[in-house]
Predict the structure of Sulfurtransferase.
Amino acid sequence: MKSITVAELAARTDTPLIDVRERDEFAGGHVPGAVNIPMSELGSRLEELPAEAFDVICQAGGRSARVVQALEAQGHDATNVEGGTGEWIATGHPVEAPSA
């Protein structure tokens, strides 16, 4: 399974990012540009995944690792983001959240 750090994620510019956290977690703040496809909905939303290589993020890296393993088995070119959104926020990277 391919993995990158949040620092490597921050340096990427053209790689789609899929956030597999649940909707309420995503709404609380996410990496700018991330698309939310919750792990619990992924099976019914596979057609929404990018055709090209993409990164997968969750809160700490566990759920995204499981998703990447499953998607790789289906032929997708997916990369896990180690440390997840929690580490992204902790290291001071920008966060998007819907305005109230």
Summary: The chain has one domain: 2-90. The chain has a mean pLDDT of 96. The helical segments are 6-11, 23-27, 62-73, 84-90.
